[in-house]
Structures are given as C-alpha cells and as structure tokens.
Specification:
The chain is of the alpha/beta class and 334 residues long. It has 7 helices and 19 strands. The protein has a 7-stranded mixed sheet, covered by helices on one side. A 6-stranded mixed sheet has the order 4-5-8-11-13-12, covered by helices on one side. The model has no long low-confidence stretch (mean pLDDT 94).
C-alpha cells in the first residue's frame, strides 16, 4: 500500500492539483494547515487581523478570557454598556468575521472540486490551526479529526488543530486542541482519543513532544499527552506537520515518524519557505517499509531522498544529487 502525505498546504491549490494529476497512490492525506489566508484581498486580511488583534489586546488588558467573537456579541447586543468606539469596532469585527468564514468555505469548496475531478484514490483531510473545523465545510466527508477509519486492514485515527491562536482566522469556527495543565496535572484529549482508538496510523497536525516539534530558538513545542501515548504504544506510523523547520523521518522501536515539512509556500519569521515538500510512504501489511521525501517545483516533482524503513535502523536507498537535505539530517534519532 502506498500513501502520499501532504501537510501545511497553505492555499497551495495549484500544487495540490498537480500532485493529484501526476502521482499514483492508494491513499492521500491532506493535513492542515490547508488554508493560509481568510480572504482573497490583502487589504481585507490586514483589516481583519488588525481589529482581531486589537480586541485580543483589549480583552487581555481587562483580564477577560472571552473570545473576540463572544465579547463583540455582548457589545453589539448591549451598546449602552460600552463606548461608541468599542461598539463600532465590534461591528466591524463581526462583519469581517462573517466575510472571512464565507471566503474560507469557498476555498474548501474549490479543494473538494479539485479532489472530485482529479483524485483517483481516496483522500482524507485533517484541519490545522489555520483551518475552520472541516465539519462546517465541503470537506466534511473527508474530515478525520477525532475520527477513525479502516483502509486495507490499517486503522487510521486523526486529531487536528494545534494549541496556538492564529491571527486572521475566525477563532470561533476553528478546531480546539484540548490539552492544558491545571493544578500541576496535564489533561489531553488527543491522548485519551488515541488510547481509546489504538490506531495503526496516528495522524496529527501538532506533533508529539520530542518528535519533529523543535522551533529554532524556542525549543520543543509538541503535545505532552500524545508523547505519553506514544511512549506506551507502538503504532506503525505517526505523521505530523505544523513545525516546518523540523523536517525528517525517524524510527523509534517499531514506529516510523514522518514530517515532510510544508507543502505550501510560507513567509515566516525564519524567512521565505518555498515548500513543495511531501512524502511517499509504503506499507507491507502493517509495516512501514519505505519513506521518500519529494518536492514539487513548478509543475514537476522529484524524489529528494528514499529511505528503507523495514529494519531496526533506517537505511539510505537513494539520494538525489540536487537535494539540499543529507541523509544524516533527514533521519533523526534512529
């Protein structure tokens, strides 16, 4: 069985179409962040981000843990309790919020049409922190957040989102990553979910702590709960994304971990990240036997590195001379 895995697609719809047109696989995973911007207009993006961030700053100063959506609902309903400036800002926020949700849903509709037209095999999707909850979009039948499915005797379970607020995204419609620490105890819904499901493929947007979750200058940011689960259990495969800078493949005990890095191009604090990356993953029964890192550039894609995963230690099969990634950099902690 062959799986093609793309993560952090970031509105890269042309590339998505080319992957569906030019690759063959038994199964495709499109992992969050599928969307990157909530508007087609750059000016609207600036307007919405600006008013959203101003409201978060205002609420933080007031030590009010409401979301901007909930606060503006109250301010519009009871305008006599607030200044004219706050009421006007609240109305502007709600108007832009409504338009952002509408525009994002239109983007998911475009993706669904691409999949229906070009996909020759099943496609599943998982939301990230830039996405709406996919159950409210045209991708709802492909959504695997907090769900499981069976494919060729493999059980696949997904948990999307990330524990981070994303500016410019309608926060009330996003997936909440239910993990927090209170009174010294860590509660993790994804940990509980995976312990109940016990999948062969553990599909996550936000990585487990210590597995492809290292942000330059900040350190590890992954889920403590999912890490606890993986310390106890050995799924065949764990695929993640979210952290573009921590790319590679790793094998621990009998579990193969893969983060191919971002598929869609991104401007970040670490510079421009051209993306185009995706992974080909091969199974023999329930065992991952090979993983290839590939990259789409323009309309053509190439395999950068091919890795044998069938033994205890990962082995290099083939490396493209033009690849900027060495085998030693690509494999971690085997």
């Amino acid at each position: 069985m062959k799986l093609i895995y793309l993560t952090d697609i970031h509105d890269g719809l042309h590339g998505l179409k080319r992957i569906l047109q030019t690759t063959d696989a038994d199964l495709y995973f499109f992992s969050g962040d599928i969307i990157y911007k909530a508007f087609f207009s750059f000016d609207r993006i600036i307007d919405f981000c600006g008013v959203q961030e101003e409201l978060y700053y205002f609420l933080n100063e007031k030590k009010d843990d409401s979301t901007p959506y909930d606060f503006t609902t109250h301010a519009i309903r009871f305008p006599e309790k607030y200044s004219t400036a706050i009421v006007e800002k609240s109305q502007k926020y709600r108007d832009l919020y409504k338009l952002a949700a509408k525009t994002m849903k239109e983007k998911y509709e475009i993706i669904e049409k691409l999949v229906q037209k070009y996909a020759k095999s099943p496609v599943y999707c998982l939301p990230g922190n830039y996405d709406l909850d996919l159950q409210y979009t045209e991708l709802y039948q492909r959504d695997l957040h907090r769900k499981s499915c069976e494919f060729e005797n493999l059980k696949i379970s997904g948990y999307g989102g990330a524990p981070i607020w994303t500016s410019g995204i309608p926060e009330k419609l996003t997936v909440v990553f239910h993990e927090y620490t209170k009174n010294g105890k860590n509660y993790s819904e994804p940990e509980d979910f995976f312990r109940e499901e016990l999948p062969d493929i553990c599909w996550i947007h936000n990585p487990a702590y210590g597995y492809f979750d290292k942000i330059p200058g900040l350190g590890n940011c992954g889920s403590q709960g999912i890490r606890r689960y993986l310390d106890d259990e050995n799924p065949s495969l764990v695929v993640s994304g979210h952290v573009h800078e921590d790319q590679g493949i790793k094998k621990t005990r009998n579990t193969v971990f893969v983060n191919p890095s971002n598929f869609g191009a991104v401007d970040s604090v670490y510079g421009f990240q051209e993306g185009g990356y995706f992974a080909e993953i091969y199974f023999d029964g329930k065992t991952v036997v090979q993983s290839n890192l590939c990259q789409l550039k323009g309309d053509e894609w190439t395999s950068l590195i091919e890795v044998d995963c069938s033994e205890k230690n990962l082995k290099l099969i083939k490396q493209n001379p033009s690849s900027h990634i060495s085998f030693e950099d690509y494999i971690r902690g085997t």
